[in-house]
Design goal:
Arc Repressor Mutant, subunit A; elongated; about 140 residues; disordered C terminus
Length: about 140
């Protein structure tokens, strides 16, 4: 449902949220997030354009979050790199079975949007401490 770019952006943002807030060099971030370096550089540019990360070039440069991790929702990240492309809109159909399928897909999409919109980077990072927002929202 989510694009590879969205997944890579989410991985990078979670890795940055796991850091102390200092700058993380792109090669180090690429390795930590398991994302190809060149691809990550483009993703980071999109995230910077959305004011989710800030970067500094040169020796000692890198990227950091622009806001606290508890202020950044996963949906913010997805929308920054792949705005609404991943939400599929279908034309109406006359077949009852296809209508039922469309309603099911719509419910699934709305559930994903709800979880991503309610889950912060901090919630994902805290998951290892048993305090995950994502687990809470999936259970509700």
């Amino acid at each position: 449902m989510l694009s590879q770019t969205s997944e890579y952006a989410l991985r990078a943002m979670v890795c940055l949220a796991s850091r102390d807030g200092g700058l993380t060099a792109t090669p180090e971030l690429a390795k930590a997030a398991n994302v190809p370096h060149n691809y990550l550089a483009k993703v980071l540019q999109m995230l910077a354009a959305a004011d989710l990360v800030a970067g500094r070039r040169g020796v000692g440069g890198g990227y950091r979050l622009c806001r606290d991790a508890d202020q950044i929702k996963l949906l913010d990240v997805v929308n920054a790199v792949d705005p609404a492309k991943w939400l599929r809109v279908s034309a109406p159909v006359d077949d009852p079975a296809l209508e039922a399928l469309q309603r099911t897909l719509d419910r699934a999409t709305h559930s994903v949007v709800r979880v991503l919109g309610q889950t912060t980077l901090a919630g994902v990072v805290q998951h290892n401490n048993g305090q995950s927002e994502m687990v809470h929202h999936l259970a509700s």
